[in-house]
RNA sequence: GCUCCGGUAGUGUAGUCCGGCCAAUCAUGCCGGCCUUUCGAGCCGGCGACUCGGGUUCGAAUCCCGACCGGAGCACCA
């Protein structure tokens, strides 16, 4: 039977199969779909404000807000600042998160600060106690762990709700001291996963909290605070790191006791960045306090502010994070993709300038034009910059490597020269026509006027000092391209002008 | 020790739920060419992967079992 015959027979027997075959599976674009999104979603990003957002935070901010954009609903920024000591919040960091969210194009619809909402947690704790879901445990931490590992009940576990309630009151009143008691959720001491067994919901911390001082002495732990908040806020979907993968199974006990409905959860793996290695906010904070970096926006640091400072566009970050998706695999990414994305955005907009690093003076005999006219952009017609030239200019020292007297090169947008001597550095003018340089495939280098502006370019790997043309001073806050060097953002017009390097 | 999760090119990613459109997608990277008064941009071409072993099946990246590798949790941290 021929192919055509088969085709015809199939059409006769099962036309729906043909239709299915010809229907192409659309390649999935963007983020994977979420379940149960009818009526919109409520999603939150919940950091501890103990430093500014990092690239890791950016992923959380962007992906959460992207889903809200996709399905409609509300994007919440919630500060889980319930540890006044070990993860001590920084008062400035609250503002930093809000600013960076907005900069990333993810302005929160609501901002929640956990330390402001303690009464809710106390109320939930009491409901939980009354429902028989929690007890006050005064075991020593290590002793409890031992029991827990063996799956044995601790002596406090059989408390009645009334007993638990009166002990809870003592936690709040100050009759019980720090370390003497915790409120525990009654789960299942024989649960096969020890991580789930009777976890602590509240502990006593007497140190003042940076935001609310000594107003409270019983502080909820993350799993409890977050469980209550997600219910209160009507969170529909939670995006959570794999490190918190146990939270759902723990928090479900609270939800079940109180008759709440648990949100849908998606996990994602850890993210590491080649160029920055592994970093943590607390590690960064230490290094910055020690003066190793000049602040949270130092170009060597993986914070969102540092990206902004370097001229990375929020759109580049968004595109990148959306492309990463939400896999549970741990990933190790490279900044290269972000740079490529950003270059696409920034290249059409950035004016071109000459910046000469490691400058050396070059004397040129002859009729060198007094001023060069160079386009601000190679392809879009944005006019010209005028650069004073003359018989003395500056060039990069490393462009001289391998050159000898008699060699000819072209100074871009100026003229062609022939080297007369390398030490001292002298050359002579041999014409201005581009054509003669082109035909001979002459090397083309850039240069700077001797009375140019001192420039410092700080980058993630190194800092370069040199001289640039005067027009750079009119680009404050903008990204420019230093020809044959890379893109940088002009951040400060002092002496020197300070720019941050973005990428090549 | 107990528990959970994951393994597609150098790096990410699509496909895995519902096995045949997959001799496996896209991006980035790398290599070569063209173009360009920048080592930038653009254009063209190329490189490169289903962790391994069994099983089920006419057919497996996709389902099952095992191994190996990697990550995470078992805090009075978030």
What does this structure look like?
This protein is an alpha/beta fold and about 500 residues long. It has 3 domains: about 150 residues, Rossmann fold, CATH 3.40.50.620; about 150 residues, Rossmann fold, CATH 3.40.50; about 150 residues, Ribosomal Protein L25, Chain P (Beta Barrel), CATH 2.40.240. It has 14 helices and 27 strands. The strands form 7 sheets. A 7-stranded mixed beta sheet has the order 12-25-26-27-23-24-13. A hairpin with a 4-residue loop joins strand 26 and strand 27. The longest helix is centred in the N-terminal third of the chain and has 17 residues. It is elongated, with a radius of gyration of 32 Å. The two termini are about 60 Å apart. The mean pLDDT is about 90. The structure holds one RNA strand of 78 nucleotides.
Task: Briefly characterize the structure.
The protein is α/β, with parallel strands linked by helices and 504 residues long. It contains 14 helices and 27 strands.
């Amino acid at each position: 039977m021929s192919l055509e015959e088969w085709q015809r027979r199939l059409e006769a027997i099962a036309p729906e199969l043909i239709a299915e075959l010809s229907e192409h599976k659309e390649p999935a674009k963007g983020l994977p779909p979420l379940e149960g999104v009818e009526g919109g979603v409520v999603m939150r990003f919940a950091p501890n404000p103990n430093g500014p957002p990092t690239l890791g935070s950016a992923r959380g901010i962007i992906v959460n807000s992207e889903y809200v954009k996709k399905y409609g609903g509300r994007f919440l920024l919630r500060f889980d600042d319930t540890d006044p000591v070990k993860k001590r919040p920084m008062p400035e960091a609250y503002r930093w998160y809000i600013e960076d969210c907005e900069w990333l194009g993810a302005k929160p619809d609501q901002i929640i600060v956990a330390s402001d909402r303690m009464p809710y947690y106390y109320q939930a704790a009491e409901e939980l106690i009354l429902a028989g879901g929690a007890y006050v445990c005064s075991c020593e931490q290590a002793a409890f762990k031992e029991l827990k590992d063996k799956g044995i009940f601790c002596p406090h576990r059989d408390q009645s709700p009334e007993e638990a309630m009166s002990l809870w009151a003592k936690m709040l009143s100050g009759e019980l001291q720090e370390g003497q008691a915790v409120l525990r959720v009654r789960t299942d001491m024989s649960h096969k996963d020890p991580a789930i067994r009777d976890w602590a919901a509240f502990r006593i911390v007497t140190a003042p909290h940076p935001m609310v001082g000594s107003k409270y002495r019983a502080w909820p732990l993350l799993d409890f605070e977050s469980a209550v908040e997600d219910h209160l806020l009507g969170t529909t979907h939670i995006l959570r790191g794999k490190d918190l993968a146990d939270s759902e199974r723990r928090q479900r006990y609270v939800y079940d006791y109180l008759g709440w409905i648990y949100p849908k959860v998606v996990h994602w793996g850890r993210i590491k960045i080649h160029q920055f290695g592994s970093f943590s906010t607390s590690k960064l904070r230490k290094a910055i306090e020690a003066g190793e970096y000049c602040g949270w926006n130092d170009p060597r640091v993986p914070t969102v502010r540092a990206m902004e400072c370097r001229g990375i566009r929020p759109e580049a970050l968004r595109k990148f994070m959306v492309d990463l998706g939400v896999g549970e695999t741990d990933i190790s990414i490279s900044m290269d993709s972000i740079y490529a994305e950003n270059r696409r955005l920034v290249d059409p907009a950035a004016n071109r300038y000459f910046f000469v690093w490691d400058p050396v003076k070059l004397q040129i005999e002859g009729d060198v034009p007094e001023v060069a006219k160079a386009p601000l952009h190679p392809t879009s017609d944005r006019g010209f910059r005028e650069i004073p030239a003359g018989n003395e200019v500056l060039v990069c020292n490393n462009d001289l490597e391998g050159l000898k007297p008699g060699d000819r090169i072209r100074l871009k947008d100026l003229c062609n020269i022939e080297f007369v001597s390398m030490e001292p550095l002298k050359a002579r003018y041999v014409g201005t026509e581009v054509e003669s340089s082109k035909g001979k495939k002459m090397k083309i280098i850039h240069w700077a006027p001797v009375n140019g502006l001192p420039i410092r370019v700080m980058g993630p790997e190194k800092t370069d000092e040199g001289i640039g043309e005067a027009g750079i001073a009119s680009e404050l806050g903008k990204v420019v391209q230093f020809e044959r060097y890379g893109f940088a953002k002009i951040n400060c017009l002092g002496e020197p002008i300070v720019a941050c390097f973005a990428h090549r």
